[in-house]
Amino acid sequence: MPALSEYANVFDTAVAVLERKGYQVWVSPRTDLVWAQRDGWDFAAETPIALLGLVAIYEYTRPAGYTEYWWRTEPERRYADLPTTPPDYHPVTDRRGEL
Q1: Which of 15, 44, 46, 63 has its CA 20 to 30 A from that of 28?
Q2: What is the number of structural domains in the chain?
Q3: pLDDT of amino acid 98
Q4: What percent of the chain has pLDDT over 70?
Q5: How does strand 41-45 pair with strand 33-38?
């Protein structure tokens, strides 16, 4: 079991993090998407967790202004190259009481 995964019981925490970062957050009944905006930059996703991920991309890239594909990083096709097996590691959930 992972230490944290995308699940509905994490939605409230994701919304709280976004709000504490200064974003206004709302749900659009028309599109059924969750939205966030700050300083004129707006983002939409199907879940608050995905929305938090989009905001993380924005905060990581720190674009000076809007340009097409401002979010791209190098190399562009990294997802297609990901390994299909996990690395050798010891999950934190197996180390309870050690930390």
Answers
A1: 63
A2: 1
A3: 66
A4: 98
A5: antiparallel
Q: Is the dihedral of CA 82, 84, 90, 93 positive or negative?
A: positive
pLDDT of 23 > 90? The answer is yes
Residue type, 64: A
Q: Is 40 within the bounds of a domain?
A: yes
Q: Report the SS3 class of residue 18.
A: helix
Query: What does 38-74 look like in DSSP terms, one character per residue?
Result: ETTEEEEESSHHHHHHHHHHHHHH--SS--TTTT--S
| Cα four-point dihedral sign 7, 8, 12, 16 | positive
Residue with tokens 């010891």: 90
> What is the domain extent for residue 55?
25-61
Per the CB < 8 A criterion, the answer to whether 35 and 50 are in contact is no
- Whether 62 shows a pLDDT value over 60: the answer reads yes
